[in-house]
Amino acid sequence: MENLLRKGKFFLLLLIVTNVFGQVSVKRLNDPSIVAQHKRMTFESWGDWRPYPKYFLGIQTNFAYATVWGMWAPNINRDYKDGEDIRPLKPTGVQNQRFAQLKFQEEEAKKIKTASDTIHKRSVQDFAHWTSATVDADPLWLLYYKRMLKPITEFPDHPQNFLEWKLKDPQTYETLNITGTIKRLQEELDLIKEKYTMSRSMDMPRGKRFLMYHETLMKWRKFVWELRNHNNKTTLLTDYKNILKNHSNYALPPAWTPASDGQIVHSTMQHYKHRY
Questions:
Q1: Global pTM?
Q2: Do residues 54 and 41 lie in contact, with contact meaning Cβ atoms separated by under 8 Å?
Q3: Closest by alpha carbon to 205, among 135, 273, 269, 150?
Q4: How far apart are CA 156 and CA 163, in angstroms?
Q5: 62-74 mean pLDDT
Q6: How far, in Å, CA of 232 to CA of 248, rounded?
Q7: Which residues make Cβ contacts (< 8 Å) with residue 185, sequence separation at least 6?
Q8: Ranges of each domain in the chain
Q9: What Å distances lie between residue 83 and 46, 47, 77, 80, 169, CA to CA?
Q10: How many whole angstroms separate alpha carbon 85 and alpha carbon 67?
């Protein structure tokens, strides 16, 4: 029982001591010199040099001022008091300069991020146009080149008769085949189809791909134009042969042979010898 009373008295004493020291610890410290220092180090004003000097008959009597700012103060204190305004939060202070620089860096970071995002998006777009896997979705291909280059895919790779060559009749095909024109046209056709296949299957920049489309289209138009000209010329030659065959009066005699230069001169002299 006595131990219990002792413990109770001890806890009661501890509670009283804690309460007393707690009230002392929360006592507000209000030192005018510290407050003045806080004002100097913020944006308020550069001054209020506490403690203030006191004079009696022209003699400094405030020991605290003399040791902090006065004649007995360290040189660094006097230099600080008489020096320039070094408030970090003044309009041109170091801290405000840091804030401004930080804001500027944030704006620059936003610009860099925007530029990097733009470069990334452009790279993705360029890759989408670079690879051959997306060529069918290109707007310019869908609007123009798909329709203009379609005849190349429809034309046979190795035509074997006049119908596949888009010629008028078998005689035209035979004539071009005998003269070797068919072989040359086949080589040009192979080059056109090969260029078309490369433009559709290879990975390349979008601009280069459309240049290849354009070159292929120009070669194809030239090929079709040349084929049409051969078709027309061969048909005209065949028609002319048929005319000569049907009208023998226009044909040359079978035994006719061209005269030599001496025979022509002799015939001319015999014809005009009685006139001169």
A1: 0.47
A2: no
A3: 135
A4: 11
A5: 88
A6: 25
A7: 165, 176, 223, 226, 227, 230
A8: 29-90, 92-130, 135-249
A9: 10, 11, 10, 5, 109
A10: 22
